[in-house]
Design goal:
Helix content of chain B: 25-40%
CATH architecture of chain B: 4-Layer Sandwich
Number of domains of chain B: 1
CATH class of chain B: Alpha Beta
Shape of chain A: globular
Radius of gyration of chain A: 19 Å
CATH topology of chain A: Glutamine Phosphoribosylpyrophosphate, subunit 1, domain 1
Largest sheet of chain B: 5 strands, antiparallel
Oligomer: heterodimer
Largest interface: A-B, 8 and 12 residues
């Protein structure tokens, strides 16, 4: 058998599957007590805004958080199924899955969605949690085929993911305190929204702010909207004072 | 060729009921009681890992006495029923009454059609929210459902224990009072039960979605007013 040959005009182009950079930015980073996860609130339909206050960061169970980029319908459904599966396992077995086990389970769900993903309805999650056995926060990133990659310190997914990753990379330090980690996550989302049309920034008019959650030995905790709003206010003030135009 | 003997249906049912009752009476009892903040379930159970009391759903608990493998099978079926229903419809649509009916039908079916009845009694308890009352469904080996409002006793010597519970009952009592009354009702006048012989769990009203909580070790000892286990 020989390789197919195409004259230059008939070149079918690369066949690496659909472009999966869906509009969203979700980011997670490790800090001293566990992990911080943050996500913007915008849902888009082409160049229109479909929803201004959608939620993309969820508690998967008591000790882990899941966020997703991609098609909203299948994404929310997948999160709901994942939450149900984790809780079901815990109740039937009388013991929760290990963080590793939960991460693998999510990978299997993504692989199950491959057919839909090839038709353009891809869902790419970001999973982070507190590992009760190792006593550290851990972050898992996924590809379309369900491949699961553990990230050492931070990761961000979605169309603004690259901007968010760069921002976190420049500000990251090992063993940060909660305040610093949340500040860095907020800055990452701010910069991502600044560069990416499909990522929503702080909406000070309506009072809609990105969601920020922490997962520590005490479990999942969503930062309150006033707290997140206030931190964005401080960030904007600082940028203004430094002479940048926020 | 052997001739089938005629046995009166009354006799068949009576034999099965006696068999089931005997099996249940061999096991240790369990008390579920309503208190100010919810429902407290107290069981005599020396095992730390094989539970008699379990979580089914957000506000629903399950407890069983008798043969462990039989009630545990029903527990898993109940968790599956509740999780499937909650996923397909809504979490609010999962309720104890419907679950109790499913259990009652299954137990009734086995009792009338199978050789051996299930040697178990089970409890399905639901915490009432927004002013709705707490519900206790006590389901017997033959599928009979008893709906209780204050407390219910499952297992051997149920009548004696229920009598002791009744005499100490107080409306709106605290978790400590309810627990101590349940433990002394289970123990009876001649025995005392320590923290290591008890399994205790509560469905407690609060902000958490999942109301089920086990009361173990230090917390249990403290409520009982005894030194914590080492």
């Amino acid at each position: 058998m020989s390789l197919p040959m195409f004259p230059p005009a008939d070149d079918p182009g690369p066949s690496t599957g659909p472009d999966v950079r869906h509009g969203t930015t979700v980011a997670a980073l490790r800090y001293g007590d566990g992990v911080v996860m943050a996500g913007d609130r915008r849902a888009t339909e082409g160049y229109s805004i479909a929803h201004r206050a959608i939620e993309k960061v969820f508690a998967a169970d008591r000790y882990s958080a899941v966020a997703f980029a991609g098609a909203a319908g299948p994404g929310i459904e997948m999160v709901k199924l994942f939450q149900t599966q984790l809780e079901h396992y815990e109740k039937v077995e009388g013991l929760a899955l290990s963080l590793e086990g939960k991460a693998n389970q999510l990978g299997q769900m993504i692989r199950g969605n491959l057919g839909m993903a090839m038709q353009g309805l891809a869902v790419l999650p970001l999973y982070a949690g507190y590992d009760l056995r190792r006593r550290i926060g851990r972050i898992f990133n996924y590809d379309l085929t369900g491949g699961r990659y553990e990230e050492a310190d931070y990761h961000a997914t979605g169309s603004g993911g690259r901007d968010a990753r760069t921002t976190i990379k420049l500000g990251y330090r090992e063993g940060m305190a909660r305040d610093e980690a949340i500040e860095l996550a907020i800055l990452a989302l701010y910069e991502a929204a600044d560069e990416d049309i499909a990522t929503g920034g702080p909406d000070v008019v309506r009072g809609i702010y990105p969601m920020v959650a922490t997962v520590t030995a005490d479990g999942f905790e969503l930062a309150s909207e006033p707290e997140v709003g206030e931190r964005f206010g401080v960030l904007i003030e600082r940028k203004r004072a430094e002479g940048q135009r926020p | 060729m052997t001739m089938p003997f005629y046995v009166a249906p009354e006799q068949v049912m009576k034999d099965r009921a006696d068999y089931a009752r005997k099996g249940i009476a061999r096991g240790r009892a369990l008390v579920a009681a309503v208190f100010a903040e919810g429902i407290l379930v107290t069981a005599e159970n020396p095992s730390r890992s094989l539970h008699k009391i379990n979580e089914i759903y957000d506000r629903i608990a399950f407890a069983g006495v008798g043969r462990y493998n039989e009630f545990d099978q029903l527990r898993v079926a109940g968790v599956r029923h509740a999780d499937t229903k909650g996923f397909a419809y809504s979490r609010e649509d999962v309720d104890a009454r419907s679950l109790a009916n499913v259990y009652a039908q299954y137990l009734g079916q086995v009792f009338t059609h199978e050789m051996k009845p299930l040697e178990i009694e089970i409890l399905v308890a639901e915490l009432g929210v927004d002013g709705a009352p707490d519900q206790l469904y006590h389901i017997l080996y033959d599928g009979t459902v008893v709906d209780e409002e204050r407390f219910t006793v499952l297992g051997g010597e149920a009548e004696a224990i229920a009598g002791r519970m009744d005499s100490s009952w107080a409306e709106g009592w605290t978790v400590t009072e309810a627990l101590r009354a349940a433990v002394s009702a289970l123990a009876g006048p001649d025995r005392t039960l320590g923290a290591d012989e008890l399994e205790v769990a509560a469905l407690a009203r609060g902000d958490a979605r999942r109301a089920f909580r086990r009361i173990e070790d230090g917390e249990l000892a403290e409520l009982l007013g005894v030194p914590p286990p080492t």
